[in-house]
Write a structure and sequence with these properties.
This protein has 214 residues and is of the alpha+beta class. It has a domain of 147 residues. Strand 9 and strand 10 form a beta hairpin. The N and C termini lie far apart (49 Å).
Length: 214
């Protein structure tokens, strides 16, 4: 079965459980298919109103609602989308580009229903991985650490001590589970507050972009 074939093309993405945005990813609306409502209830789930706001396009992926600041390559964005689809299907909530207490920025942070925190670092090429010598620092902020990459990147370059995911724009496969190394209670509390504040601020930025520049 092709990678991600089991993942529905119509997906709902969530940033830390605060809001959802529904849309057919990479597919045009089929003939006779009713358009998605601008707001209200979709498939039994409440969705955020689709409000067109001038100036939001360059910074937000319109399909996932996740930030795009120009640092991510097209391959990295496709990997990110596939990982989000896979983890979301398993009940995790995800938020991208999270600045940690150490000053490092995590590509993706996933939160489980039990409060378990997973960091996923996206590496779109061999060079992308080799220039990052500080990745072990992420272990201080998460219970599990994964690398996510594309099929063309050799899996052997990634350390056995971390989990490994191969993804494309439609889904992802976990090649190696990440070991569980539980963080301290104080660190978990700090991370949960950090994720909640990041999610709330991004929701507010969608509703009122100028507020974020004040």
């Amino acid at each position: 079965m092709p990678l991600g074939a089991a993942i529905s093309a119509r997906a709902t993405f969530e940033i830390f459980g605060f809001w959802t945005l529904t849309g057919a990813i990479g597919h045009s609306q089929e003939a006779g298919e009713p358009p998605a409502p601008a707001h209200g209830i979709t498939n039994g789930r409440r969705t955020m109103p689709r409000i067109q706001i001038d100036g939001i396009g360059p910074n937000i992926d319109p399909e996932t609602g996740m930030p795009v600041d120009g640092r991510q390559s097209q391959t990295a964005l496709m990997i990110r989308r596939g990982v989000c689809r896979r983890f979301r299907s398993e009940g995790l909530a995800l938020i991208a580009e999270v600045t940690l207490a150490s000053g490092r920025r995590a590509d993706l942070v996933a939160l489980g229903r039990n409060g378990e925190i997973t960091i996923i670092e996206i590496k779109s090429s061999v060079e992308d991985f080799r220039i990052d010598t500080k990745w072990p620092e992420y272990r201080r902020h998460a219970d599990r650490l994964y690398f996510a990459t594309a099929a063309h990147v050799p899996a052997g370059i990634f350390p056995q001590s971390a989990g490994l995911i191969v993804a494309d724009a439609f889904g992802a496969e976990v090649l190696r589970q990440a070991p569980l190394e539980k963080i301290a209670a104080a660190t978990r509390k700090e991370m949960l507050i950090r994720l909640a504040r990041a999610g709330a601020r991004r929701l507010h930025d969608l509703e009122d972009p100028p507020a974020g520049s004040r």
